[in-house]
């Protein structure tokens, strides 16, 4: 058993490190594309997600109203972060 572990430790470590590097590269590429997203589209997607949470009972009416107003304010400011 320890001989098998010794034989596979280095290749397995290289494989895991390669996966980590690949995941980091993919996250950087996705972040770059997100920066060019239309703020209105992103805000609409966020509002849809929060509406679904409200419908499931995960957000109260007051919490949902507050989120909607912050998203509307952010959209009016040109898409800046709604939760500064």
> How many distinct folded domains?
2
- How far is it from the N-terminal to the C-terminal residue, by CA? 54 Å
Pick out the low-confidence regions. none
Q: Based on DSSP secondary structure assignment, what is the total number of beta strands?
A: 0
Question: Structural class given helices, strands, pairing?
Answer: mainly alpha
Rg over C-alpha atoms, rounded to the nearest angstrom: 22 Å
Helix content: over 70%
| Shape call | elongated
Report the sheet-strand fraction: under 5%
Task: Specify the biggest β-sheet.
Answer: none
Total count of helical runs of at least 4 residues: 3
How do the SSEs run, as a string of H and E?
HHH
Mean pLDDT: 84
What does the secondary structure layout of this molecule look like, with pairings?
Layout: H1 2-35, H2 39-55, H3 61-76
Helix pairs in contact: 2-3
Can you offer a commentary on this structure?
The structure is a single chain. The chain has helices spanning 2-35, 39-55, 61-76. With 84 residues, the protein is mostly helical. The protein folds into 2 domains: 1-36; 38-84, no CATH class. 2% of the residues are buried.
Sum up the structure in keywords.
84 residues; 2 domains; 3 helices
Summary of the model, kept short:
The chain has three helices and no strands.
């Amino acid at each position: 058993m320890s001989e098998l572990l010794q034989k596979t430790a280095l290749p397995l470590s290289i494989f895991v490190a390669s996966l980590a590097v690949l995941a980091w590269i993919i996250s950087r590429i996705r972040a770059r594309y997100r920066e060019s997203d239309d703020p209105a589209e992103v805000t609409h997607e966020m509002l849809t997600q929060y509406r679904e949470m409200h419908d499931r009972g995960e957000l109260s009416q007051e919490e949902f109203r507050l989120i909607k107003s912050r998203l509307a304010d952010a959209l009016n400011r040109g898409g800046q972060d709604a939760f500064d």
